[in-house]
Amino acid sequence: MMQTTRKISITPRVSIGGEAETFTLIAGPCAIEDETTVMTAAEGLKRVCEELEIPLVFKGSFDKANRSSIFSPRGVGLEEGLRILEKVKAELDLPVVTDVHETTQCPAVGQVVDLIQIPAFLARQTDLLVAAAKTGKAVNVKKGQFMAPDDMRNVAAKLTEAGNENILFCERGTSFGYHTLIVDFTGLIEMRKIGFPIVFDATHSVQKPGGNGTSSGGNREYAAPLMNAALAVGVDAIFAEVHPDPSRAISDAENQIPLAEIREILCRAQKIDRVSRAF
After folding, report:
1. Cα–Cα distance between 128 and 99 in angstroms, integer?
2. Where are the alpha helices (DSSP H) in 215-261?
3. Which of 47, 135, 142, 159 has the fewest Cβ atoms surrounding its Cβ within 10 A?
4. 101 with 74: CB under 8 angstroms?
5. Residues 6+ positions from 6 with CB-CB distance below 8 Å
6. What is the rounded CA–CA span in Å between residue 276 and residue 214?
């Protein structure tokens, strides 16, 4: 039987963890490239998730600060990114999430988003965790590729000491040699023992960091199987990068899921999740 975690409220209508009857989907393009791409992705994801009755939190990054190359495009920036996310909230009535890289970004981001995300490379940055916690918003921390599952206890302590217990832990793969990530599914069970909801990042887990020299590669064909495996083990939410046309994405082009394919993937995932929760 899947161990019950605490229930974390993202909005009055969307929560993650507890005794939920289904997983929550956190999804959207890797980077906020422009308003049209974001709205197309958000409208498509909302349509599919409403049909399947899967709660949705829309994701988009205003800045990809950890690019492989200094010449790689990073996104539209803080001000424009938050404007676009506000439009998603206002016009589509969806909760939104974005990631932060610096403490100074947290106050402005906290005014707009419903969930703040900490990138895996920054999961141990105390000042950033404290600043995110002090916004009062729920915080999704991606476990560093270099961290053991039980290291996340220290992350939780930093956030709770700053006065915020609305915490999610996200698995996104572990470094395994050069340019390669693997997923240790026992780690999902170990992190779950800490008591906070667990998110599985299906698309970053198939990334090949720096695999193309000046950019990261990836194997998107493995994203859905890993998603299914994580749901079979037991997770509270799935994170997935979904793009209307991944071939033209400015970031993670090789591991983002095409919007046209997400319904079929979620249908299969939902069936596995129901069986898992029944046991």
Report:
1. 11
2. 223-233
3. 47
4. no
5. 17, 18, 165, 195, 196, 197
6. 40
Phi, psi of 218 (to 5 degrees): 180, 165
List, for residues 146-196, the tens digit of each pLDDT value. Answer: 999 999 999 999 999 999 999 999 999 999 989 899 999 999 999 999 999
Do 210 and 216 meet the contact criterion of CB atoms below 8 Å apart? yes
- Number of C-beta neighbours around residue 52 at 10 A: 15
**Per-residue tokens: 12:** 């009055």
Angstrom CA distances, 51 to 34, 178, 232, 244, 267, stand at 26, 41, 22, 19, 10
Rounded to a whole number of angstroms, the CA Rg of the chain reads 17
| The CATH number of domain 8-278, selected from 3.30.1330.40, 3.20.20.70, 3.40.50.10260, 3.40.50.720 | 3.20.20.70
* DSSP secondary structure of 175-210: E-STT-EE--THHHHHHHTTSS-EEEETTGGGEETT
Total Cβ atoms within 10 A of residue 98: 25
Structure tokens at 152: 């996340």
pLDDT digits (tens, 9 = 90+) for 185-220: 999 999 999 999 999 999 999 988 775 665 666 788
- Looking at residue 226, its amino acid is L
Contacts for 1 with CB less than 8 Å, ≥ 6 apart? 279
Rounded-to-integer distance, Cα 121 and Cα 56, Å: 25
Contacts of 192 (CB under 8 A, 6+ apart): 3, 5, 198, 234
DSSP string for residues in 46-106: HHHHHHHT--EEEE-BS--TT-SSTTS---S-HHHHHHHHHHHHHHH---EEEE--SGGGH
- C-alpha distances (whole Å) from 236 to each of 1, 54, 66, 241 are 13, 12, 27, 17
CA distance 193 to 125: 23
